[in-house]
Design a protein that fits this description.
Mean pLDDT: 93
Bound molecules: adenosine-5'-diphosphate, magnesium ion
Low-confidence stretches: none
Number of helices: 9
Strand order of the largest sheet: 6-7-8-3-9-10
Strand content: 15-25%
Distance between the termini: 60 Å
Length: about 270
Amino acid sequence: MEDAVRMQGVTYVYVTDREATLAVENIDLSVRPGEFVSLVGPSGCGKTTLLSLIAGLMRPTRGEVQVGGKTITDPSPRVGYMLQQDYLFPWKTILDNALTGLRLMGRLNPETRQYTKHLLHEMGLGHSEDWYPQQLSGGMRQRAALVRTLAAKPELLLLDEPFSALDYQTKLQLEDLVSETLKTHCKTAILVTHDISEAIAMSDRIIVLDRNPGRIRKEIAVPDPIRQAIPFQAREAPGFHELFNQIWNELLEISGEEAQHEQPAET
Ligand code: ADP
Ligand code: MG
């Protein structure tokens, strides 16, 4: 079967009039259909850059990005992108917000509208279709943003720290809901998160990135007992704490290596 995502030798350099920043270098990454992969690494290691490249918002300086076997050069409805901020329009109802993507793509019709309403229902927002974003809690708003992303039936979901602005309890509930929804709809997903527990609880595979430039440092397959549990229960599964420590130490090593490379301050 075709890889859902395939990055080959991907390098990206941000160029401004003052400087050039090598954000990510020589990234090779394949994601299988239906797989859930998390990207973790220090801030500035290029996680958002990688998602933007897969979303086709930017083109690689070198290398190639394919989604479902086709080279990505522009944003595509096959890829859904969800961010930490929900970007709901305050003057539109939840249903209208959820339909925004479809309307922009010229794909709003009775069938896609019905599907969106079905998703709202599935996400526990069926009764709040006619509400406005300011009437919703943070968790409900993120669920509405997820429905908007799923409404266009993307094959691939890119999630850039979608739970990080939520309180802990809401975040855990949403992890379970998102995990279940993506499984039901057989979606492939790439999640960026700062939260090691979240990465382990939600993923099939975890990619640890190095910084300056962003490179793949380690790939870790999550063992079956953890993968098969829902995220909330995965935290109690055998092997969870060992895996947490392994990734924690990996991230500590990255900051340790960086500290060694820093120049001593002049006295
Ligand atoms: P992360 O999401 O892992 O925190 P980013 O992908 O946002 O990292 O950034 C990777 C690197 O690219 C950082 O060094 C950052 O400063 C740089 N960078 C990101 N966006 C821009 C931009 N628009 N212009 C210049 N440099 C950028
Ligand atoms: Mg980022």
